[in-house]
């Protein structure tokens, strides 16, 4: 088949046709259309191998799309009323690319404090100067939510000259910011609004109380299709508007992404888009109603439940400290959840109608798991996200800055030289360049004693941390 800009087939149909033709492969990948190997590979997996193709002329090129990939990305853009590009390295690479395309080394960027580690890693490696925007902290649960317009206004006044605002909405817990008001304000200042919407690819229906930021004036939005849609892990996409420099964005995307994009991931992205398109008004309404019923049943069963603006995220509070144990009991009876923290667990609900039997069965199992775990209906968590100044600038370390390893006790009041991340959700508790408070150490000690998983240097587990030596 000759390379064509006007392939009459969709991405998935073209792959199907390619596989049917049983072509000879003198190209990578090394499984040569699934013809190399032995019986060790499970048969279902073996059947998938032939679809794991490479950038042959008629299969287009992710980094310079002009055929079936371009067609599929255009269809995606039509759905989100934007320009869109597929990502094969998750929202992680989207966050890196949005920042690289809008902010230069040494320039300021306004960043939500409870951003995912992909944002902080990008900021560090790209050499940007972050101004931290404190989110609101939800009363009772202590969970950090979203940044308000007032906080952004204050940041722009106190720390002028920032080149972009980087927000997360919805958050992991489904809370959503007032993107319309924020984008109106920023567009007058010509500051692009970048939104990490890793958890919001499904928020497109006009009747939803709040939709994706791309419909509300954001300049660029990154979504992990794999988190909330039926796409393979790592499948994500980015939507962007005219105020984003497309040349810079494409340069960043092709620099940070693999040069061998997975056709399996891309096929799943096209499928996820078509699934979303296929949902009728009735389907949306049934999905939402069934989710509400599930939450009602959980509440009836005595659980203390938080639902964010995004109806697919359900948090069960497990005061005072039983989240991790509850998670273990759930796992032992076959229920795997998205996240277990010390005082809550988070469930991601599927974007489909959940039927009555499923609801009954799931709630019964959850009640059973909870009988082993006293879950006290308290008013306040003892682990609130630390509330500091509404806006502040992060200390940027020089490369040869002297650092000391000290005990947690000694570290209070010093600037941290490393980042400590509870995982999941991957939101740093202590950021490199941030001052360490007594509260942060208190909570960290509790987490270590309770066995919460932390991404940090091994010495953190023995209650030591690297800090900057300050000269007074
Ligand atoms: C808010 C947020 N942003 C970005 C990411 C990174 O997404 P991905 O795993 O698709 O790279 C995550 C992952 O958990 C996330 O929760």
From TrEMBL:
<protein>
    <submittedName>
        <fullName>Aminotransferase class I/II-fold pyridoxal phosphate-dependent enzyme</fullName>
    </submittedName>
</protein>
<keyword id="KW-0456">Lyase</keyword>
<dbReference type="InterPro" id="IPR015421">
    <property type="entry name" value="PyrdxlP-dep_Trfase_major"/>
</dbReference>
<dbReference type="Pfam" id="PF03711">
    <property type="entry name" value="OKR_DC_1_C"/>
</dbReference>
<dbReference type="InterPro" id="IPR015424">
    <property type="entry name" value="PyrdxlP-dep_Trfase"/>
</dbReference>
<comment type="similarity">
    <text>Belongs to the Orn/Lys/Arg decarboxylase class-I family.</text>
</comment>
<keyword id="KW-0663">Pyridoxal phosphate</keyword>
<dbReference type="Pfam" id="PF01276">
    <property type="entry name" value="OKR_DC_1"/>
</dbReference>
<dbReference type="InterPro" id="IPR008286">
    <property type="entry name" value="Prn/Lys/Arg_de-COase_C"/>
</dbReference>
<feature type="domain" description="Orn/Lys/Arg decarboxylases family 1 pyridoxal-P attachment site">
    <location>
        <begin position="11"/>
        <end position="282"/>
    </location>
</feature>
<keyword id="KW-0210">Decarboxylase</keyword>
<keyword id="KW-0808">Transferase</keyword>
<dbReference type="InterPro" id="IPR036633">
    <property type="entry name" value="Prn/Lys/Arg_de-COase_C_sf"/>
</dbReference>
<keyword id="KW-0032">Aminotransferase</keyword>
<dbReference type="InterPro" id="IPR052357">
    <property type="entry name" value="Orn_Lys_Arg_decarboxylase-I"/>
</dbReference>
<feature type="domain" description="Orn/Lys/Arg decarboxylase C-terminal">
    <location>
        <begin position="397"/>
        <end position="442"/>
    </location>
</feature>
<dbReference type="GO" id="GO:0008483">
    <property type="term" value="F:transaminase activity"/>
</dbReference>
<dbReference type="InterPro" id="IPR000310">
    <property type="entry name" value="Orn/Lys/Arg_deCO2ase_major_dom"/>
</dbReference>
């Amino acid at each position: 088949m000759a390379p064509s800009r006007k392939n009459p087939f969709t991405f998935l149909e073209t792959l199907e046709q390619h596989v049917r033709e049983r072509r000879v492969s003198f190209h990578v990948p090394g499984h040569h259309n699934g013809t190399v190997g032995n019986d060790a590979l499970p048969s279902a997996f073996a059947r998938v191998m032939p679809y794991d193709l490479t950038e042959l002329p008629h299969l287009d090129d992710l980094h310079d799309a002009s055929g079936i990939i371009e067609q599929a990305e255009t269809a995606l853009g039509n759905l989100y009323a934007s320009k869109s590009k597929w990502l094969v390295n998750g929202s992680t690479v989207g966050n890196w690319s949005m920042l690289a395309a809008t902010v230069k080394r040494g320039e300021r960027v306004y960043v939500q404090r409870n951003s995912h580690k992909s944002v902080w890693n990008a900021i560090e490696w790209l050499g940007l100067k972050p101004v931290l925007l404190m989110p609101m902290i939800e009363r009772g649960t202590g969970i950090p939510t979203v940044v308000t317009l007032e906080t952004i206004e204050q940041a722009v006044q106190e720390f002028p000259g920032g080149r972009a605002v980087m927000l997360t909405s919805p958050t992991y817990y489904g809370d959503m910011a007032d993107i319309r008001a924020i984008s109106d304000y920023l567009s007058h200042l010509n500051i692009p609004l970048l939104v990490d919407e890793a958890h919001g690819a499904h928020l497109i229906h006009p009747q939803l109380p709040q939709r994706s930021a791309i419909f509300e004036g954001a300049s660029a939005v990154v979504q992990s299709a794999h988190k909330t849609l039926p796409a393979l892990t790592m499948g994500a996409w980015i939507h962007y508007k005219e105020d984003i420099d497309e040349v810079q964005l494409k340069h960043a995307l092709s620099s940070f992404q693999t040069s061998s994009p997975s056709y399996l991931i891309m096929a799943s992205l096209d499928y996820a888009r078509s699934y979303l398109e296929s949902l009728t008004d009735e389907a949306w309404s049934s999905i939402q109603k069934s989710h509400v019923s599930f939450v009602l049943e959980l509440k009836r069963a005595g659980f203390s439940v938080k639902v964010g603006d995004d109806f697919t995220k359900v948090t069960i509070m497990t005061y005072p400290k039983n989240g991790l144990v509850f998670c273990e009991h759930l796992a032992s009876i076959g229920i795997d959840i998205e996240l277990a923290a010390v005082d809550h667990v988070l469930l991601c609900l599927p974007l489909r109608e959940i039927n009555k039997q499923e609801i009954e069965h799931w709630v019964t199992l959850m009640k059973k798991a909870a009988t082993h775990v006293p879950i006290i209906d308290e008013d306040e968590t003892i682990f609130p996200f630390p509330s500091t100044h509404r806006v502040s600038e992060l200390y940027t370390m020089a490369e040869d800055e002297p650092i000391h390893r000290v005990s947690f006790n000694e570290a209070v009041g010093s600037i941290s030289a490393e980042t400590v991340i509870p995982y999941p959700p991957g939101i740093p508790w202590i950021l490199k360049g941030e001052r360490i408070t007594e509260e942060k150490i208190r909570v960290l000690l509790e987490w270590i004693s309770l066995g919460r998983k932390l991404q940090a240097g091994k010495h953190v587990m023995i209650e030591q941390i690297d800090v900057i030596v300050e000269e007074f």
